[in-house]
Write a structure and sequence with these properties.
The chain is an alpha+beta fold. It folds into 3 domains: about 180 residues, Alpha-Beta Plaits (2-Layer Sandwich), CATH 3.30.70; about 55 residues, 5' to 3' exonuclease, C-terminal subdomain (DNA polymerase, domain 1); about 140 residues, Dna Ligase, domain 1. Helix content is about 35%, strand content about 20%. It contains 15 helices and 14 strands. The strands form 4 sheets. A 5-stranded mixed β-sheet has the order 5-6-1-7-10. The protein has a 4-stranded antiparallel β-sheet with strand order 11-14-12-13, covered by helices on one side. Strand 8 and strand 9 form a beta hairpin. The protein is globular.
């Protein structure tokens, strides 16, 4: 643990283990040791997380929930509670910030840390990894796996190898910490599947396999000319990553690129009335999230997936950024494409992008006459939602719909629940 670390960067990747399932077990200890599966529990839901006891039956994240039920009929299936996970995630980030300000959250349950500046205070990078594990266990009562390396990619791949593993029907304990020492990057990468390399998606993996490239070591030895013929200018970057070379920095407190909300419906929506109702809910959600983050945005996007999985995405960019509920609703409604009577809609999504944190924007009169009364109304609505929850106040047009005051404020991130 105390081998010397040279002058190269010290990057950690901290990843909470089976996060959503672990939180459910934390809140209900009777679930410990059982196959817990979290996600959208309805017919069109997907698995968000599964305990290792469920993974031995082949259950994996992003698997359709119907498939998970067949694979693990004795599993305990729970609807995801996004707000609870977000609250625990915030505490996780507080622990990381007690080590270094140079940390970059990736989702709720993982983050990169550049601990170069923390070494004088806490010791070597592996010692810092051990301290993170100790603090997370003491303060959150959760397990975190930590990978240590000289680049973000190495640290990410290392943390994967620190986790428990499944062999047949047996869960093998993980190390908790995996360290790739400076100078050992190539040795670490060589036997790994080339599919683990950043930037290698399904299509790239298929091309590489046709070239006889199965491992990262094979990629290192592959002809530059063949790689350029297949990948063009990307070939050089792939070779660098295979050599363990990556200058991608840890971006501390990275700002959000967009705010989005999607819903997959238990049964298809038909007709403009149903779809407009759901779009109104999406607009209300975007406005609440933007206000909570102190952000405004210029580009509004609507995504529609039909029952035949055909997907249409339409957007509009405003001259003046906004987070006004009325502007978002008006623009999203205008983006709904012409629909026929047989067009069933299984998913709707909306997003606000080109974000900035200017809280005092003056909206264009063409967008919305945002007078003092309107501004006061927006503030009052946001105050009520903060105090009593998202479902506590809604536009009157939504009260006849399926979301009513008192409903859970958790967005169905992984498809509908039962």
């Amino acid at each position: 643990m105390e081998r010397p670390w040279d002058s190269r960067r010290a990057i950690l990747h901290a990843d909470l283990d089976c996060f959503f399932a672990a939180v459910e077990i934390l809140d209900d200890p009777s679930l410990a040791g059982k196959p817990v599966i979290v996600g959208g529990t309805g017919g069109r839901g997907v698995v968000a997380a599964a305990s290792y006891e469920a993974r031995v039956w082949g259950v994996r994240s992003a698997m359709p929930m119907a498939t998970a039920r067949r694979a693990c009929p004795k599993g305990i299936f729970l609807s995801g509670r996004y707000s609870r996970y977000a609250a625990i995630s915030q505490r996780f980030h507080i622990v990381l910030s007690s080590i270094t300000d140079e940390f970059e959250p990736i989702g709720l349950d993982e983050a990169f840390l550049d601990v170069g500046g923390a070494r004088r205070l806490f010791g070597s990078p592996p010692t810092i990894a051990s301290e993170i594990r100790r603090r997370v266990k003491a303060e959150l009562d959760l397990s975190v796996c930590v990978g240590v390396g000289t680049t973000k990619q190495i640290a990410k791949l290392a943390s994967r190898r620190a986790k428990p593993s499944v062999s047949g029907r047996v869960v093998r304990p993980g190390k908790g910490i995996e360290v790739v020492w400076p100078g050992q990057e190539v040795v670490f990468l060589t036997p790994l599947s080339v599919g683990e390399l950043w930037g290698v998606g399904p299509k790239s993996l298929e091309l590489l396999r046709k070239m006889g490239v199965a491992t990262i070591g094979d990629l290192r030895r592959a002809s530059d000319s063949r790689l350029r013929a297949a990948f063009g200018t990307r070939a050089a970057k792939l070779k660098e990553l295979a050599e363990g070379i990556d200058t991608d920095p840890v971006i501390a407190h990275a700002s959000a690129k967009s705010i989005s909300h999607e819903e997959t419906y238990a049964s298809d929506l038909y007709g403009l009335s149903q779809i407009t109702h759901e779009v109104s809910l999406l607009a209300d959600s975007l406005a609440s999230r933007a206000e909570a983050k102190g952000l405004i945005g210029r580009t509004i996007t609507l995504k529609i997936r039909f029952s035949d999985f055909r997907t249409v995405t339409r957007s509009v960019t405003l001259d003046v950024p906004t987070r006004s509920r009325k502007v978002l609703l008006d623009r999203l409604r205008a983006l709904i494409p012409p629909l026929s009577a047989v067009d069933g809609v299984r998913l709707l999504g909306a997003s606000l992008s080109q974000l900035s944190d200017n809280r005092s924007v003056q909206l264009s009169l063409l967008d919305y006459w945002f007078d003092e009364r309107s501004e006061a109304l927006e503030k009052t609505v946001n105050d009520i939602k903060r105090r009593f929850g998202e479902g506590s106040i809604l536009p009157a047009s939504l009260l006849e719909g399926r979301h009513r005051p008192g409903d859970s404020s958790d967005p169905p991130m992984w498809g509908p629940s039962e």
